[in-house]
Amino acid sequence: MSQYDSLKEECFESNLLLPEFKLIDLTFGNVSVADPAKGVFAIKPSGVDYRQMMPGDMVVLDYEGKTVEGNLRPSSDTPTHLRLYQAFKGIGAVVHTHSRNATSFAQAGRGNSLFWHHPRGLFLRGCAGDPCAHRGGNRAGL
């Protein structure tokens, strides 16, 4: 039994909502869930099929980006999630999707951003052409 089991379970359950609501295709997109009091967050492992994934597969990292618990490689989007947790103290979750609608807007070069606050976290989605859709650098969606 780990001190992070409930965090990993919440992260797992949140990630399962992405395919259920058709917000992702294949393994593209993820949810991370934080425990600001402990200074850690759990995130879906990279490339793991949602149908095969288990709560224990979630990777727990600290706010420096170091793996605290988990044997799999964290999502390739981990640096973006990490930057958001560092920039917005106290947020509880980050959701990153590649929904077909958002991807269509991005491919068309049309902005389509969404930025809202929820009791469990700060949600941000940006597409190509949006001021909040930055790749790399230290702005990471800010």
TrEMBL record:
Q: Indicate the segments forming the Class II aldolase/adducin N-terminal domain, all copies.
A: 9-142
InterPro entries reported in the protein's UniProt record: Aldolase_class_II_sugar_metab, Aldolase_II/adducin_N, Aldolase_II/adducin_N_sf
Q: What is its EC number?
A: 5.1.3.4
Keywords on record: Metal-binding, Zinc
| SMART domains (alphabetical) | Aldolase_II
Q: Please list the cofactors this protein needs.
A: Zn(2+)
> This protein's superkingdom?
Bacteria
Name the SUPFAM superfamilies on file: AraD/HMP-PK domain-like
**Catalysed conversion reaction:** L-ribulose 5-phosphate = D-xylulose 5-phosphate
Q: What class of enzyme is it?
A: isomerase
Q: Which family does it belong to?
A: Belongs to the aldolase class II family. AraD/FucA subfamily.
Q: What name appears for this protein in its UniProt entry?
A: L-ribulose-5-phosphate 4-epimerase
* Naturally occurring in which organism (per UniProt): Geitlerinema calcuttense NRMC-F 0142
